[in-house]
Specification:
InterPro entries: DUF433, Homeodomain-like_sf, WH-like_DNA-bd_sf. The chain is mainly alpha-helical. Helix content is 51%, strand content 8%. The protein is globular.
Length: 74
């Protein structure tokens, strides 16, 4: 998934954390909600500005960060 269309960095929003373009919702928030057991449907219901694609973009972003971290450590 090409998360670039969904996620951006803005120093003036949420202290520059990666977030969903046009919202004040951080990628970290969505990942935490998923880790706590919330379903895609529950997240979208609570935050209607997000879609299932946004949530998949958060997962793809996290996987990419992990992959890059491992490459730097090697």
């Amino acid at each position: 998934m090409d998360y670039v269309n969904f996620i951006s960095l803005n120093a003036g929003v949420r202290f520059g954390k990666a977030g969903f373009t046009g919202t004040r919702i951080a990628v970290q928030d969505v990942l935490s909600w998923l880790a706590s057991g919330m379903s895609f449907e529950e997240i979208v219901e609570d935050f209607p500005e997000l879609t299932n694609e946004h949530i998949r973009a958060a997962l793809a972003f996290a996987a990419d960060v992990e992959r890059r971290t491992r490459q730097l450590a090697a």
